[in-house]
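Colleagues,

For the teaching module next term, I've prepared a clean inverse folding example: a structure given as tokens, and then the sequence designed for it. I'd like students to try predicting residues themselves before seeing the answer, so please don't circulate the second half yet.
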């Protein structure tokens, strides 16, 4: 009597385990029409003006009386210095990096162009990916040739004489 009950329990566990999704953080597309939680900035509480007859004209896209500088407030809330921001919103410590990466110009449609190129790359690499008998990680399969082995890179840097931080043993 124990054997059939054990087999039923084992089959149930296997069936339930097969229903899981392994996409995790690799599938970061929005699944709904709601707001993007990363684009919403917390604001200070609203206050009533002293005189409703003397209100400033609205400035769409400009600053407001409640939050005159929300970006600097967010930087301070995250532990940074508001004085480190430049007019471009780039911290002064990163200005050399931004200048070096944009020395040949920055196209205005970078995000859409990269998204289109990535979609074409995935389409070329994954012609047969629509056929699947078992749940597999198609993202890892398509980008396998593009990925780096972190342990090989660490060993290469260490052998070159660079100081590298410790990392967990391979296989963990």
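(Answer key — instructors only)
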């Amino acid at each position: 009597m124990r054997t059939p009950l054990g087999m039923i329990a084992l089959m149930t566990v296997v069936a339930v385990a097969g229903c899981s999704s392994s996409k995790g953080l690799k599938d970061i597309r929005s699944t709904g029409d709601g707001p993007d939680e990363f684009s919403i900035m917390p604001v200070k509480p609203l206050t009533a003006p002293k005189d409703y007859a003397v209100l400033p004209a609205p400035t769409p896209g400009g600053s407001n009386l409640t939050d005159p500088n929300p970006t600097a407030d967010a930087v301070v809330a995250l532990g940074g210095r508001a004085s480190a921001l430049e007019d471009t919103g780039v911290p002064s410590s990163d200005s050399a990096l931004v200048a070096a990466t944009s020395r040949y110009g920055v196209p205005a449609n970078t995000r859409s162009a990269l998204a289109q190129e990535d979609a074409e790359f995935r389409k070329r690499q994954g012609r047969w990916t629509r056929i699947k008998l078992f749940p597999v990680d198609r993202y890892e399969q398509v980008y396998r040739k593009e990925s780096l082995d972190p342990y090989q890179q660490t060993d290469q840097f260490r052998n070159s004489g660079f100081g590298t931080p410790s990392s967990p043993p391979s296989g963990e």
